[in-house]
Amino acid sequence: MHCENLSFPGLSTDGGFAEYLLTNERSVITLPDGVDPAEIAPHADAGITAYHAVKKATTELVPGSTAVVIGVGGLGHIGVQCLLAMSAATIVAVDIKQDALDLAQRLGVDHTINSGEENLVSAIDSITDGTGATQVLDFVGSDETTATGPDIVAPGGDFHVVGYGGHVHQPAQALVDGELAYRGALVGRYTELQELMALVDRGAVELHTTHYPLDEINTVAEKLEHGEIEGRAVIRPNG
Predict the structure, then answer these.
(1) Cβ(52)–Cβ(188) under 8 Å?
(2) How far apart are CA 4 and CA 2, in angstroms?
(3) Can you say whether the dihedral through the CA atoms of 187, 210, 87, 110 is positive or negative?
(4) Whole-model pTM?
(5) Tally of CB atoms within 10 A around 179
(6) Which domains are assigned to the chain?
(7) Could you report the per-residue pLDDT of 20-49, keeping only the tens digit for each?
């Protein structure tokens, strides 16, 4: 994702919502036996992005520490499962949708917070006995979520910005006093996609998807814009 000759289908080159996409052999991995490519297609983007962020976070997570996942949507529900599979930390899921929090509970998180009804800072302060979260993974990336960093991250902790659309506005002293680091996460490496597939193969990570034909792409885009897609939408080529 940091290649000097970056080629990103749908962004820097043509591609994305098409029946055929030109790629190269290096971009192809072997799937576990019996796996339908359409069922796990989002892992090549959403999955590897969530895994890449979680993998960085888990290097700082030990039993007794706390990880917070903000946004249990298309990326966040994958991130929750990766955290559950890769760490022994206490996991807290945050969302404004009760359906998303119900999903997080079914997946096995330790705590859920409806930030539309509860004060996020107070709730995390209560869960962590005032110490804050060692690692926060923000799959929303709005001004409102990134602004919570200094108030919910433990001293020396990291706030991983995975979703984007907002900004990070913090006094320099807040970063210095808490040794707080904001860390971005962009997709992932080829080897990390293989590692994610190993988790999929053992049943540790499952996708929640809805399938649509390619000719309904505009309808799907509207649903996504209005927050009407649960999990990930998979677009199948027509025919």
Answers:
(1) yes
(2) 6
(3) positive
(4) 0.90
(5) 12
(6) 46-184 (3.40.50.720), 208-239 (no CATH)
(7) 888 888 778 888 788 888 888 889 889 999
